[in-house]
Amino acid sequence: MKAKNQIGIKTEAELALLREAGKILSSIIRDLQCSLKIGMTTGQIDQVTEKLIRDHHVIPAFKGYRGFPGSVCVSVNQEVVHGIPGSKVIRDGDIVSIDVGIIHQGWYSDTALTVGIGQIRPELKKLLDVTRDALYKGIAKARDGNHLSDISHAIQQYIEANRFSVVRDFVGHGIGKALHEEPEIPNFGPPGCGPVLKAGMVIAIEPMVNIGTWQTRITEDGWTVVTLDGKPSAHFEHTVAVTAGGPEILTQ
Length: 252
Fold this sequence. Notes:
This protein has a single domain, classed as Creatinase/methionine aminopeptidase superfamily (Creatine Amidinohydrolase), CATH 3.90.230. 28% of the residues lie in helices and 26% in strands. It has four helices and 15 strands. The longest helix has 24 residues.
Protein backbone atom coordinates (compact mmCIF):
# COMPACT_ATOMS: atom_id res chain seq x y z
CA MET A 1 0.00 0.00 0.00
CA LYS A 2 1.39 3.39 -0.99
CA ALA A 3 0.63 6.53 1.00
CA LYS A 4 -0.59 9.54 -0.95
CA ASN A 5 1.45 12.16 0.89
CA GLN A 6 4.99 13.48 0.67
CA ILE A 7 7.95 11.83 2.37
CA GLY A 8 7.56 12.63 6.05
CA ILE A 9 10.21 14.16 8.29
CA LYS A 10 9.99 12.88 11.85
CA THR A 11 10.50 15.18 14.82
CA GLU A 12 12.96 14.34 17.57
CA ALA A 13 10.07 13.24 19.81
CA GLU A 14 8.75 10.98 17.05
CA LEU A 15 12.20 9.55 16.40
CA ALA A 16 12.49 8.73 20.10
CA LEU A 17 9.31 6.63 19.89
CA LEU A 18 10.55 4.95 16.71
CA ARG A 19 13.81 4.12 18.48
CA GLU A 20 11.82 2.52 21.31
CA ALA A 21 9.78 0.53 18.80
CA GLY A 22 12.91 -0.63 16.99
CA LYS A 23 14.59 -1.70 20.22
CA ILE A 24 11.55 -3.76 21.20
CA LEU A 25 11.30 -5.34 17.78
CA SER A 26 15.00 -6.24 17.66
CA SER A 27 14.57 -8.05 20.99
CA ILE A 28 11.52 -9.91 19.67
CA ILE A 29 13.18 -11.12 16.48
CA ARG A 30 16.33 -12.12 18.34
CA ASP A 31 14.31 -14.30 20.72
CA LEU A 32 12.27 -15.64 17.81
CA GLN A 33 15.40 -16.58 15.89
CA CYS A 34 16.69 -18.50 18.92
CA SER A 35 13.43 -20.47 19.10
CA LEU A 36 13.59 -21.81 15.52
CA LYS A 37 14.31 -25.53 15.29
CA ILE A 38 13.89 -28.55 13.06
CA GLY A 39 10.37 -29.97 13.22
CA MET A 40 8.53 -26.74 14.05
CA THR A 41 5.64 -25.76 11.85
CA THR A 42 5.37 -22.25 10.47
CA GLY A 43 2.15 -21.97 12.47
CA GLN A 44 4.08 -22.67 15.68
CA ILE A 45 6.54 -19.95 14.70
CA ASP A 46 3.57 -17.59 14.43
CA GLN A 47 2.35 -18.60 17.89
CA VAL A 48 5.78 -17.94 19.40
CA THR A 49 5.95 -14.59 17.60
CA GLU A 50 2.58 -13.39 18.82
CA LYS A 51 3.40 -14.35 22.40
CA LEU A 52 6.70 -12.46 22.25
CA ILE A 53 4.93 -9.41 20.82
CA ARG A 54 2.19 -9.48 23.46
CA ASP A 55 4.74 -10.04 26.23
CA HIS A 56 6.39 -6.77 25.17
CA HIS A 57 3.00 -5.00 25.36
CA VAL A 58 3.02 -3.98 21.71
CA ILE A 59 0.70 -4.83 18.82
CA PRO A 60 1.42 -7.20 15.90
CA ALA A 61 1.48 -4.93 12.86
CA PHE A 62 0.82 -7.65 10.31
CA LYS A 63 -2.11 -9.48 11.90
CA GLY A 64 -5.24 -8.44 10.02
CA TYR A 65 -3.33 -6.11 7.70
CA ARG A 66 -5.24 -6.34 4.43
CA GLY A 67 -6.58 -9.61 5.80
CA PHE A 68 -3.22 -11.28 6.55
CA PRO A 69 -3.95 -13.96 9.17
CA GLY A 70 -0.62 -14.16 11.01
CA SER A 71 1.59 -12.07 13.27
CA VAL A 72 4.68 -12.97 11.22
CA CYS A 73 5.43 -13.75 7.59
CA VAL A 74 7.30 -17.08 7.39
CA SER A 75 8.78 -17.84 3.96
CA VAL A 76 10.66 -21.09 3.39
CA ASN A 77 13.24 -21.88 0.68
CA GLN A 78 11.76 -20.72 -2.68
CA GLU A 79 9.20 -18.52 -0.88
CA VAL A 80 10.38 -14.92 -1.17
CA VAL A 81 8.08 -12.98 1.17
CA HIS A 82 4.58 -12.94 2.72
CA GLY A 83 4.44 -16.64 3.58
CA ILE A 84 1.29 -17.43 5.58
CA PRO A 85 2.03 -19.43 8.76
CA GLY A 86 0.41 -22.86 8.79
CA SER A 87 1.16 -26.59 8.80
CA LYS A 88 4.43 -26.52 6.85
CA VAL A 89 7.21 -28.26 8.79
CA ILE A 90 10.71 -26.76 9.00
CA ARG A 91 13.32 -29.33 8.00
CA ASP A 92 17.08 -29.71 8.28
CA GLY A 93 18.73 -27.75 5.45
CA ASP A 94 15.85 -25.29 4.95
CA ILE A 95 16.30 -21.54 4.91
CA VAL A 96 13.53 -19.62 6.65
CA SER A 97 12.76 -15.93 6.25
CA ILE A 98 10.92 -14.31 9.14
CA ASP A 99 9.45 -10.83 8.70
CA VAL A 100 7.95 -9.12 11.75
CA GLY A 101 6.33 -5.76 12.39
CA ILE A 102 4.97 -4.14 15.54
CA ILE A 103 3.06 -1.04 16.58
CA HIS A 104 4.37 0.78 19.66
CA GLN A 105 2.35 3.77 20.87
CA GLY A 106 1.01 4.26 17.35
CA TRP A 107 4.40 3.94 15.61
CA TYR A 108 5.44 1.08 13.35
CA SER A 109 8.70 -0.83 13.14
CA ASP A 110 9.58 -3.56 10.63
CA THR A 111 12.45 -6.03 10.32
CA ALA A 112 13.29 -9.34 8.66
CA LEU A 113 16.04 -11.92 8.43
CA THR A 114 16.68 -15.30 6.85
CA VAL A 115 18.22 -18.13 8.84
CA GLY A 116 19.54 -21.56 7.97
CA ILE A 117 18.05 -24.52 9.83
CA GLY A 118 20.51 -27.25 10.74
CA GLN A 119 23.11 -27.90 8.04
CA ILE A 120 22.56 -25.83 4.91
CA ARG A 121 24.33 -26.08 1.55
CA PRO A 122 27.30 -23.72 0.94
CA GLU A 123 25.37 -22.02 -1.87
CA LEU A 124 22.57 -21.17 0.58
CA LYS A 125 25.03 -19.85 3.14
CA LYS A 126 26.48 -17.58 0.48
CA LEU A 127 22.97 -16.41 -0.45
CA LEU A 128 22.26 -15.46 3.17
CA ASP A 129 25.62 -13.73 3.60
CA VAL A 130 25.30 -11.74 0.37
CA THR A 131 21.73 -10.66 1.08
CA ARG A 132 22.63 -9.53 4.60
CA ASP A 133 25.72 -7.69 3.37
CA ALA A 134 23.71 -6.06 0.56
CA LEU A 135 21.32 -4.66 3.16
CA TYR A 136 24.23 -2.96 4.93
CA LYS A 137 25.62 -1.68 1.63
CA GLY A 138 22.25 -0.01 1.08
CA ILE A 139 22.02 1.31 4.63
CA ALA A 140 25.45 2.96 4.24
CA LYS A 141 23.95 5.12 1.47
CA ALA A 142 20.98 6.28 3.59
CA ARG A 143 22.62 9.64 4.24
CA ASP A 144 21.37 13.21 4.33
CA GLY A 145 21.97 14.63 0.85
CA ASN A 146 22.18 11.34 -1.03
CA HIS A 147 19.56 10.35 -3.56
CA LEU A 148 17.12 7.55 -2.78
CA SER A 149 18.40 5.47 -5.69
CA ASP A 150 21.91 5.53 -4.25
CA ILE A 151 20.55 2.94 -1.78
CA SER A 152 19.00 0.93 -4.60
CA HIS A 153 22.12 0.97 -6.74
CA ALA A 154 24.45 -0.08 -3.93
CA ILE A 155 22.25 -3.09 -3.17
CA GLN A 156 21.90 -4.19 -6.80
CA GLN A 157 25.58 -3.74 -7.60
CA TYR A 158 26.68 -5.93 -4.69
CA ILE A 159 24.12 -8.67 -5.31
CA GLU A 160 24.80 -8.96 -9.02
CA ALA A 161 28.56 -8.90 -8.47
CA ASN A 162 27.96 -12.07 -6.46
CA ARG A 163 25.91 -13.59 -9.31
CA PHE A 164 22.54 -13.53 -7.60
CA SER A 165 19.42 -11.67 -8.76
CA VAL A 166 17.39 -8.84 -7.24
CA VAL A 167 13.61 -9.18 -6.90
CA ARG A 168 11.90 -6.35 -8.80
CA ASP A 169 8.27 -6.86 -7.86
CA PHE A 170 8.57 -5.99 -4.15
CA VAL A 171 10.44 -3.08 -2.59
CA GLY A 172 11.25 -1.29 0.63
CA HIS A 173 9.23 1.62 1.95
CA GLY A 174 8.92 4.56 4.27
CA ILE A 175 7.55 3.80 7.73
CA GLY A 176 6.18 5.71 10.70
CA LYS A 177 2.53 6.21 11.65
CA ALA A 178 1.69 3.72 8.89
CA LEU A 179 3.38 0.46 7.99
CA HIS A 180 3.91 1.59 4.39
CA GLU A 181 4.61 5.27 3.73
CA GLU A 182 6.38 7.15 0.98
CA PRO A 183 8.86 6.53 -0.53
CA GLU A 184 9.03 3.15 -2.25
CA ILE A 185 12.63 1.89 -2.19
CA PRO A 186 13.56 -0.48 -5.02
CA ASN A 187 16.59 -2.72 -4.59
CA PHE A 188 17.78 -1.92 -8.11
CA GLY A 189 18.38 1.11 -10.31
CA PRO A 190 20.98 3.71 -11.29
CA PRO A 191 22.55 6.03 -8.71
CA GLY A 192 21.74 9.73 -8.35
CA CYS A 193 18.00 9.51 -9.02
CA GLY A 194 14.82 10.07 -7.08
CA PRO A 195 14.19 12.19 -3.98
CA VAL A 196 17.04 13.64 -1.96
CA LEU A 197 17.27 12.05 1.47
CA LYS A 198 16.89 14.36 4.45
CA ALA A 199 17.53 14.00 8.16
CA GLY A 200 14.36 12.82 9.90
CA MET A 201 13.24 10.43 7.17
CA VAL A 202 12.65 6.85 8.37
CA ILE A 203 12.71 3.99 5.88
CA ALA A 204 12.57 0.21 5.78
CA ILE A 205 15.29 -1.13 3.49
CA GLU A 206 14.76 -4.77 2.50
CA PRO A 207 16.66 -6.57 -0.25
CA MET A 208 15.06 -9.79 -1.53
CA VAL A 209 17.60 -11.91 -3.38
CA ASN A 210 17.18 -15.03 -5.50
CA ILE A 211 19.66 -17.70 -6.55
CA GLY A 212 18.04 -17.96 -9.99
CA THR A 213 15.76 -15.60 -11.88
CA TRP A 214 14.56 -12.39 -10.28
CA GLN A 215 11.01 -13.14 -11.42
CA THR A 216 8.33 -14.16 -8.93
CA ARG A 217 4.69 -15.16 -8.75
CA ILE A 218 2.00 -15.11 -6.06
CA THR A 219 0.57 -18.50 -5.09
CA GLU A 220 -3.07 -19.49 -4.86
CA ASP A 221 -3.37 -18.29 -1.25
CA GLY A 222 -3.13 -14.72 -2.55
CA TRP A 223 -0.18 -13.85 -0.32
CA THR A 224 2.85 -16.12 -0.57
CA VAL A 225 5.39 -14.92 -3.14
CA VAL A 226 7.63 -17.61 -4.67
CA THR A 227 10.46 -17.56 -7.19
CA LEU A 228 9.29 -18.32 -10.70
CA ASP A 229 11.95 -21.00 -11.17
CA GLY A 230 11.52 -22.60 -7.74
CA LYS A 231 15.05 -21.74 -6.58
CA PRO A 232 15.73 -20.38 -3.05
CA SER A 233 15.40 -16.76 -1.97
CA ALA A 234 16.58 -14.71 1.02
CA HIS A 235 15.26 -11.53 2.66
CA PHE A 236 16.79 -9.13 5.19
CA GLU A 237 15.31 -5.84 6.44
CA HIS A 238 16.00 -3.04 8.90
CA THR A 239 14.13 0.10 9.81
CA VAL A 240 16.59 2.98 9.40
CA ALA A 241 16.52 6.67 10.31
CA VAL A 242 18.37 9.21 8.18
CA THR A 243 20.17 11.56 10.59
CA ALA A 244 22.63 14.42 10.32
CA GLY A 245 25.30 12.05 11.63
CA GLY A 246 24.54 9.25 9.16
CA PRO A 247 22.17 6.30 9.00
CA GLU A 248 20.84 4.98 12.31
CA ILE A 249 19.59 1.39 12.33
CA LEU A 250 16.58 1.38 14.64
CA THR A 251 16.03 -2.40 14.59
CA GLN A 252 19.65 -3.44 15.22
